[in-house]
């Protein structure tokens, strides 16, 4: 087997999703989403379990090729137009593990959650929301870039 040849095995248990990338039969990297995340993704963002499976597998492949960012925010949307309450999905790379989840940002209260989501992910969500809200405003975009 060539060194760059790998296989992804499904080691899911119950409703939890877990995939392992193996090189020469040895586990190298993992990707997972808890059952609560699978349910939240569907209810809040319309993501099916099958879509989540494919996304976890692709994330593992990108991690293996060293192409996966530390934090990726996706599917960012305002829950109700005008509410300034945002919800999104995230992919978090933690060394050799990939975790996928749902995150929210209540802009008027300055709160992000859930609490078990790493601070780095919550900060990235804040940045993405502010970028979305300032898009097209040259002064606001300049200030955001300066504070980066």
The radius of gyration computed from the alpha-carbon positions, rounded to a whole number of angstroms, is 17 Å
The pLDDT mean sits at 92
Distance between the termini: 45 Å
Task: Return the structural class.
Answer: alpha+beta
Describe this structure in words.
- This protein has helices at residues 35-45, 49-64, 119-134, 138-147; strands at 6-10, 17-23, 26-33, 71-78, 85-94, 97-106, 111-113.
- By secondary structure, the protein is an alpha+beta fold.
- Strands 1, 2, 3, 4, 5, 6 and 7 form a seven-stranded mixed β-sheet that branches.
- Strand 1 (6-10) and strand 2 (17-23) form a beta hairpin.
- It starts with 5 loop residues before the first strand and ends with a helix.
- The mean pLDDT is 92.
Tags for this entry?
148 residues, single chain, 4 helices, alpha+beta, 34% strand
What topology emerges from the helices and strands here?
Layout: E1 6-10, E2 17-23, E3 26-33, H1 35-45, H2 49-64, E4 71-78, E5 85-94, E6 97-106, E7 111-113, H3 119-134, H4 138-147
Parallel strand pairs: 3-6
Antiparallel strand pairs: 1-2, 2-3, 4-5, 5-6, 6-7
Question: What's a quick, concise take on this entry?
Answer:
The protein has 148 residues and is α+β, with helices and mostly antiparallel strands. It has helices at 35-45, 49-64, 119-134, 138-147; strands at 6-10, 17-23, 26-33, 71-78, 85-94, 97-106, 111-113.
């Amino acid at each position: 087997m060539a060194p760059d040849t790998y296989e992804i095995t499904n080691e899911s248990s119950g409703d939890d999703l877990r995939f392992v990338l193996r090189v020469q039969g040895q586990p190298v990297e993992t990707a997972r989403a808890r059952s609560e995340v699978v349910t939240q993704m569907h209810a809040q963002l319309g993501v099916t379990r099958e879509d989540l499976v494919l996304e976890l597998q692709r994330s593992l492949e990108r991690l293996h090729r060293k192409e996966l960012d530390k934090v990726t925010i996706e599917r960012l949307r305002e829950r109700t137009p005008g509410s300034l309450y945002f919800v999104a999905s995230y992919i978090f790379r933690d060394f050799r593990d990939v975790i996928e989840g749902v995150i929210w940002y209540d802009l008027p209260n300055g709160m992000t959650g859930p609490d078990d989501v790493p601070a780095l992910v919550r900060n990235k969500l804040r940045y993405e929301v502010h970028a979305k809200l300032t898009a097209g405003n040259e002064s606001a975009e300049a200030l955001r870039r300066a504070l980066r």
